[in-house]
């Protein structure tokens, strides 16, 4: 049972209250009574507006459902006119350019990977903050980028055959991005700095230098014996690291032990879809970790490979420039924090009417409050060099909801005594009404926006839910190549560029959701840059290091300059509903799709509900480990709901599929001592019941979101299994 402290008209969970009083508020210059008084007023003023916006969502959905029941979607003109008539498609505002100021260079000048991490996991979150720099040798050695042919397997201790392949790959990278005049880095025997230039001795006794001397920018150590050489290419850095006493350096002709890559330039510390935070205890952990990141003192101690490790934030990296000047590069990513959207309420704080307050309002206040410590220099490290706080706001539908976020940000700035537009916003373009009205959405925050990003996973869930009544949807795997999705991706980049984001903001692309398939990522994710994205999401630091290689290959600014010339309007593509021509599906194909969705859904839900894990690697039907979070769950649950609704499968078939897949998921988790089987007592399993709710009640879930059911069932599980809340 949550214990509350009454402060003015609010009741605040004791745990959260004490955390704010003793850890978050001190050294912010804010007075506690004023803080809570302002907080109460904020809730009084904004909670009703928040509620009204949610009612608008429901009203739109009802109208759309009714239209589909009464009309044939093939009549595209009528459909488009209907959406305009109900103002689901808004009238576009006049052309404008964003005017955001005080944005860090990472956003305006550096194209690079964006890592996402569940913030409730301190070990991962610190790792993510430190993922600015990553070892190329480790990223190659540990993943399938280097194949296991000809004895190069990954098993056991260091395999020199594999090591050779790693080194060859890395030297090919050097030859491509920082080529030598008439020689390969593979022939280098010594690197030195002579007269402010890189001098490379070769194994034939000659010396050479770089083809483009400007790419070499600094070093560590001595000119005769540097231990790090710093290069910059397309705005991203990397180091050749030299150590002739190191196990790898000793067998390398030039003593090279590694290539250190500037990897995740920015990172999203996620309070949303990758965490399971359902009550005051969970939310306090989320806020405490974010505070620790902003105060620079978050640490995590754990045992790895039999050794006790304490992980803390990395310091900056220092080099000597070619004129002897000192160069300092950040040792950490630029941190964004993703708040929750407008939907959920939280029992961590109860308002004057005895009601839970909107969680999005609470997140905005507290994540901004923690970030004030960064602004005030209460940390040995600085996140923003420009005095900004970077908040990602997900799951907004249309421009009125963005305007509401802007109002909330204004109010929070006033409350926390921050200059106007300190709080920057990243808009997730991941709901259909935002995609269709993206220009208007950007306009509402034109002086604080720093990114738009295609959250294609949520967006796919919303596509299915919005058009639930239009017909059965195409299979999950076909979504990627569908017209609406391609139109949506293009529209995002074009709208960003037309509103002046080139050189001013991030235009981001979505998550690589197969964390173990790094060879495929390396082959495919370059498309995100070719499509004009100056950042794209990766699930792990290793993926960030490998994805960074793409930014060395392609100069995104040049790509954006080309795309800027195009004038196509993508609305007609975006409105192509992905209805299936299902008549040709065989029984096997249908069952295969049901199995696949049911397996990933159960594999994710069981850990969420029973263990409070918000992001998991779950094997699909082909044993490919997929990153599953609440957005991928939204897709699989809405997919199953849609097929059930349109009679592609029966309820009995669906439940039998879930039961069969539950047994498989139980087996997959057999080695986890904390795991509770779902089979055979399905009625006893809170997780299995949650999965059934998600599918059977999917039609009535707001926008097809999974949060309401997950939260309810997680709270039930916490009570049943006596987990502290
Ligand atoms: C649609 C959307 O909203 S997408 C955004 C939400 N998704 C995410 O945030 C995905 C983030 N990624 C993750 O949470 C994880 O990578 C998962 C759950 C997918 C896989 O986790 P695991 O199964 O533990 O991964 P795995 O065993 O391969 O790797 C663990 C190691 O990698 C590190 N790691 C993995 N992912 C991350 C990450 N995102 N950030 C930092 N470190 C990470 C861990 O710290 C750990 O290293 P350590 O032992 O030195 O601490
Ligand atoms: O948040 C990301 C998404 O794809 O959804
Ligand atoms: Mg999302």
TrEMBL record:
Q: Coding gene? A: glcB
Where the protein is mainly located, per its record? cytoplasm
EC code: 2.3.3.9
Q: Where does glyoxylate bind?
A: 338, 430, 455-458
What Pfam family is a match, any one?
A: MS_N
Q: Which UniProt keywords apply?
A: Acyltransferase, Cytoplasm, Glyoxylate bypass, Magnesium, Metal-binding, Oxidation, Transferase, Tricarboxylic acid cycle
Q: Name one GO cellular component term.
A: cytosol
- Residue span, Malate synthase G alpha-beta insertion domain: 158-233
Q: At the top level of its lineage, which domain of life is listed? A: Bacteria
Q: Name one GO biological process term.
A: tricarboxylic acid cycle
Its name, as the record gives it, is Malate synthase G
- Active site positions: 338, 629
- The chain residues annotated with the modification Cysteine sulfenic acid (-SOH) are 615
